[in-house]
Structure formats: structure tokens, C-alpha cells
Design goal:
single chain, 271 residues, mainly alpha, 82% helix
């Protein structure tokens, strides 16, 4: 029984079916946000959404039955379990205080990450690159602090709304770093009174947006490349192992055939 369920759980058809249900559930959750659609077929959509939750739950229980404690050794399985468990929290009637958990049902769409290998690699790369990104963020924070002190010192009196304090200066610099309305909104008014202020703004953009941010992007991209290469090597090892196992079984089979042929020849010679 356990072996049959394991074959079902690990089969491509079953995994593709679960992927289809995840996509369907994501579409349904999006449709439920539309008032007109809800007024027309809201009950049907809620029923379909509940069916999707039941399917997810059955999938989790099947995996728990097959893998038992080893199920929780995989981080992606834990992620799946938490997302499905959120769906079990009641949000109506006496449990209306848990109504906020309805918002969390949108997180079930994240199960696509656990099903699609490329997405898993990207997410895992982001997680693994957090330490290096953290140090790059510390460098960026130092630059923010230095330029905030400079901006507050130079422009606080003329432009207190932008550079009146360290906090305001850092917020203004964050807007400048994102390149959102930085020129007409902040830089040009300041440059109109301080002609050499362009050096301040241009140097900050060059350092923050074009250097440090690219370093952070490079760290993540490098992590993705390393994980992709690692996954490729693991697949090659797995395929080589399967091939080796097949060759070993073939050798055993040939030896058994040879033994049987010898027995038959001995029996014929005896007769």
C-alpha cells in the first residue's frame, strides 16, 4: 500500500495535476476579489476553492504517510505544509476573530515556487546570498549616512523639507537612489540655489545606484549560477548512478543466464 502511494506521489502525472490545481486556485483567488464576479458565481468559486484546499491537504497527508518524519527534513516540504495549514484555520462564525487569516490564503500561490525548479533555484539563491547582500547593504547604509550628513550640512537651511534632518536626508537620498522624480522633484530646485550641488547628486547616484546596487545584483546572479550548476551536477550524478545500477543488474542477469546455460549443458551431457 505504502509503495503504491509513493509511486503516485512521485509520479509526473500527479505532480502536474497538483501544479494545475495550484494555478487554478490562484486564478480563483484573483476572481474572488472582483465584486461583480462574486455576485454572479461567488458560491461556485468558494466551493472550487475549498476543493483545492482538500486536494492540497490530501497531497500533504499522502506525503506524510509515505515519508513520515523525513518529510520535514526538506525545507520546501515544510514551506508547503505551512501554506496548506493556513488554509485549515476557520474564519467564520465563532472564529470570526481569525478573519484576517483570509488574507493569508493568497500565499498559497507561492506553492508554485516549490513546484517549479527554476523558481526554487532563484528563491534558494536569494536566501543563500543574504549574508553577502547583508554586507553590501551595510556598505550602502554607510554611504547613505555619509551623504545624509553632507546633505543636511549643506542644504538644511534652504530645503528643510528635503534635508532638514538626518532622517529627512536619508529619505530624500532613498528617493534619489530609486531615480523616482529625483531630478525635477529634488535635484533641480537644489541646484538652482547651489550650482555645484550637481556634484553631490551625481556622485551619490553613481555610487549607490550604479555601483553598490549592481554589486548586490551580481551577488544574487552569481548565487543563481552556482545553484544551477550544482543542480546540474546532481542530476548528472543521479543519472550516472541509475546507469551504473542498470549495468550492475545487467551483469547479474548475464551471470544468472550463464549459470542456467551451464546447468542445462551439464544436464544434457548427463543424459
Amino acid at each position: 500500500m505504502k509503495e503504491k502511494i509513493q509511486k503516485i506521489v512521485e509520479s509526473t502525472a500527479f505532480n502536474n495535476f497538483i501544479l494545475f490545481v495550484i494555478i487554478l486556485n490562484s486564478v480563483i483567488l484573483g476572481l474572488l476579489t472582483d465584486a461583480k464576479i462574486c455576485s454572479l458565481c461567488g458560491n461556485i468559486l468558494h466551493i472550487l476553492c475549498s476543493i483545492c484546499v482538500v486536494i492540497f491537504s490530501v497531497e500533504i497527508f499522502m506525503k506524510l504517510y509515505v515519508y513520515k518524519k523525513s518529510f520535514f527534513k526538506d525545507g520546501w516540504n515544510n514551506f508547503d505544509f505551512i501554506l496548506v495549514a493556513m488554509s485549515w484555520v476557520p474564519t467564520g462564525g465563532a472564529f470570526s476573530s481569525f478573519r484576517a487569516f483570509r488574507v493569508l490564503r493568497a500565499l498559497r500561490t507561492l506553492r508554485l515556487v516549490t513546484r517549479l525548479e527554476k523558481l526554487r533555484i532563484i528563491v534558494q539563491a536569494i536566501i543563500e546570498s543574504i549574508p553577502n547582500v547583508g554586507w553590501a547593504s551595510v556598505l550602502l547604509l554607510l554611504l547613505f549616512y555619509i551623504f545624509s550628513i553632507m546633505g543636511t550640512t549643506m542644504f538644511a537651511e534652504a530645503f528643510p523639507e528635503f534635508f532638514g534632518s538626518i532622517g529627512k536626508s536619508m529619505y530624500s537620498l532613498f528617493q534619489i537612489m530609486t531615480l523616482e522624480s529625483w531630478s525635477m522633484g529634488i535635484a533641480r530646485p537644489v541646484i538652482s540655489q547651489f550650482p555645484l550641488a550637481w556634484i553631490y547628486f551625481v556622485s551619490f547616484i553613481l555610487v549607490s545606484s550604479f555601483i553598490v546596487m549592481n554589486v548586490i545584483v551580481g551577488i544574487v546572479v552569481n548565487a543563481i549560477a552556482e545553484l544551477s550548476e550544482r543542480a546540474k551536477r546532481e542530476k548528472e550524478k543521479a543519472s550516472m548512478k541509475v546507469q551504473t545500477d542498470i549495468e550492475t543488474e545487467l551483469k547479474k542477469l548475464k551471470m544468472q543466464i550463464a549459470v542456467v546455460e551451464n546447468l542445462l549443458e551439464n544436464e544434457k551431457s548427463y543424459k
